[in-house]
Write a structure and sequence with these properties.
single chain, Aminopeptidase, 3 domains, alpha+beta, globular
Length: 512
């Protein structure tokens, strides 16, 4: 395959073999995966006495394992003080949020070794890198998807229950990246599709970008209109089949879309902050296959490496436009102030222009590749527009809500004395459970509500969350009970019931 020849050219030169220490996985001849400690030690060895690299502690996992970021930059100000450059894009790469998807972490180590050995200097002229090889070290060492507390950190970006999620959100705030890249693997063996129906998914590399319709329009146009198509094209030109993400195919009878719209995942959460955000899902081969290396790990790492390196090349080549779009998006909402419209009801629906889509699968019995027709539900529906108010008031569980806001780095004030405000009271009239499309999908609720203008007296301890901040729209989508992405959809926050809701818009002049 052409992409393997390209990687051989990138990895196989004599100068490379003399100057770059082998990753722990290569040292083990691909026969055993290194644990989190071995990977940390390897990355520390790369950064030692290297003026363009620095290891930074991010915190500790639920199981007490350290999380680190490896900074690689030609800018001393960024390495020491995380100061962004006006002419360099900052790229945050996260791998292995799911501990049983290890190839991304191995690709990050490989790339890191090349950078600190002095390769790819042209990229460092335009990029500052923050590489988090193991976003979930517990899962890595325990060989499972979740952390030591059984939290799925990958879908925790609203509730922020897991310490690891909070550390990664802190990293977004600390390093202020223009581009966020989230590396995953997608298993080709599925419980229903494979065991009961006899088919494997046919994944090589799939990409998706932030797609929630409330994302800054210019940012979304850049990511979906240019960067994502260019990335898919570039990877395809190497001979590795790349395509737009279609989500997990788990049954022949299911509907397909193209990646969830919710801000519980990093992709949409980061994009709602005004950051270019890209997800990769590469092929996680079946355990029962016959491969040159265990579970085809060498080839899986190669695919992840090629996907990541291709994105960095594009980001460097288009860094000026990427910087402009991303940084303007992070200031756009604050400059716009209140009055901007948000869609509270966002979901996928049947694509009437293309009601069916053919997706390749592989028959397990004989390995034949066939196309199957699925109902195409990739049309994005944005309904129930709400004007962004000047602020939201919070009158329930205020200390708990304050901690939650702080974890998101959302600015708020605490009322010290009784304060009269104009209120846009939200009265919930009905709470309707939504059908589960796939087994294991969390239960969601659709809220029916009406609003009524009035006057409220806020008491000491109540909270006010102003919307004239860069995170204003993100905060609104999590605070407003009418939102499909509201905090109250998350476990432990079940506040949704008929009656007046304790979180509501407020305005100094009564305009909403």
């Amino acid at each position: 395959m052409r992409w393997l020849l390209l990687l051989a050219a990138l990895w196989g030169s004599e100068s490379w073999s003399r100057s770059e220490p082998l990753t722990p996985l290569k040292e083990a001849n691909y026969l055993s995966l290194p644990d989190s400690h071995d990977i940390d030690q390897y990355l520390f060895s790369l950064a030692a006495d290297n003026k363009q690299a620095r290891m930074v502690a991010l915190g500790h996992s639920a199981g007490g394992r350290p999380l680190y970021g490896l900074l690689i930059s030609a800018s001393p100000a960024f390495l020491q003080h995380y100061q962004p450059d006006t002419d360099k894009a900052t790229v945050l790469v996260l791998a292995a949020q799911h501990g049983n998807e290890p190839a991304g972490a191995e690709a990050v180590q490989q790339l890191a070794s090349e950078f600190v050995a002095g390769r790819h200097l042209a990229l460092l002229e335009r990029l500052n890198l923050v590489l988090v090889a193991m976003a979930n070290p517990d899962g890595r060492d325990l060989a499972r998807r979740h952390n030591a507390n059984n939290d799925n950190t990958n879908i925790d970006y609203v509730a922020m229950n897991a310490g690891e999620t909070r550390l990664l959100v802190n990293a977004l705030n600390t390093f202020d990246p223009d581009l966020v890249y989230d590396a995953h693997e997608s298993g080709i063996w599925k419980r229903v599709l494979t065991r009961q129906q006899g088919w494997l998914t046919d994944v090589e590399v799939q990409f998706e970008a932030g797609n929630n319709p409330n994302i800054d329009a210019r940012l979304q146009d850049y990511t979906s209109g240019f960067l994502l198509p260019a990335l898919i094209k570039q990877v395809n030109e190497t001979g590795l089949r790349a395509e737009r993400y279609r989500g997990e195919i788990t049954s022949l009878e299911q509907r397909v879309a193209r990646g969830g719209l919710g801000i519980t995942n990093l992709r949409n959460y980061a994009a709602m902050q005004g950051r270019v955000s890209v997800l990769v899902e590469s092929r996680l081969d079946n355990k029962g296959g016959d491969y040159v290396t265990p579970r085809n790990i060498a080839e899986r790492v190669s695919k992840q490496y090629l996907a990541l390196f291709s994105l960095l090349q594009l980001a460097a080549e288009d860094s000026e436009r990427l910087i402009t779009v991303s940084r303007q998006a992070r200031q756009h909402w604050q400059a716009a102030g209140s009055g901007r419209m948000l869609s509270m009801d966002v979901h996928f629906a049947r694509n009437e222009a293309q009601p069916e889509v053919s997706i390749p699968l592989v028959r397990q019995a004989d390995g034949q590749r066939r196309y199957h027709v699925f109902a195409n539900h990739d049309a994005i529906i944005a309904r129930e527009p709400v004007s962004l108010p000047p602020a939201y008031a919070i009158t329930r569980e205020r200390e708990r809500m304050a901690r939650w806001l702080q974890r998101h780095h959302i600015r708020f004030t605490t009322v010290r004395a009784p304060q009269v405000v104009h209120a846009g009271y939200i009265r919930i009239t009905d709470v309707i459970p939504q059908p589960r499309v796939k087994p294991g999908v969390r239960e969601k609720w659709r809220v029916q509500a009406d609003t009524q203008a009035g006057v409220a007296t806020l008491g000491p301890g109540d909270l006010l969350v102003p919307m004239d901040q860069p995170l204003g729209p993100l905060a609104a989508l999590m605070l407003d009970p009418r939102s499909a992405n509201a905090l109250y959809q998350e476990e432990g926050w079940h506040w949704l019931m008929p009656g007046h809701f304790p979180v509501f818009p407020v305005s100094p002049d009564g305009e909403f």
